[in-house]
Design brief:
Pnp Oxidase, Chain A, 7-stranded antiparallel beta sheet, binds flavin mononucleotide
Amino acid sequence: MEKIPVHTIHSFGFPLPVVLVGAEVNEKPACLTAAWAMPVESSPPMLAVALAPHHTTLGIDKHNEFSINVPGKNLAAETDFCGIVSGSRIDKSSLFTYFRGELEHAPMIQECPVTIECRVIKTVKVNRHTLYIGEAVNVYADSGRVKNGRLHGPDLDALLLSGTDRNYYAPGDFLAKGWSIGKTLMEKHTDGGQNHDR
Ligand SMILES: Cc1cc2nc3c(=O)[nH]c(=O)nc-3n(C[C@H](O)[C@H](O)[C@H](O)COP(=O)(O)O)c2cc1C
């Protein structure tokens, strides 16, 4: 099929998980919605989030701490609200119940099934956005979502932002086993499966 250029650079046309980034501004919890967040290191575990200057980033810049909170699909309205309303104009601090872990200035959202407290390790100024790279000091999860000490993925009910239509979706049906379905191509494309990663 012919490839033609499109003008959706803002979202790049692929779905992204949506998170709430928490910080402390003027001694109060603050949060914003972010889709540009991802893990960037496994040991020690680190996450990065690309943020333009916002009310919430005032707190991150001051304390070098933030939280990543993964909302379930039941929090779609609250998540969207936090992404369209600024704490500089409207106090969003009563929208959620907050708790703290080890870090003093990284309030986490009780209503989110998974929350991560992060210490800023590095910032990279890109252009309007800054990439905040944080070490995940602790990850907390609702007990009902943990099996054998590990998070149970399908139970997360995460929110996905569709890159093309800018709407929210919930993850869909089970498709295939990860790090596994690719092995069906092993015989054809490698030396019989001897030479693959992990
Ligand atoms: C779905 C969605 C995703 C967003 N992703 C980001 C993002 O990744 N980075 C960013 O800087 N702003 C992002 N925003 C915008 C901020 O969340 C928004 O400007 C927010 O109101 C800032 O809040 P604050 O001023 O209280 O900190 C997003 C907004 C929405 C609705």
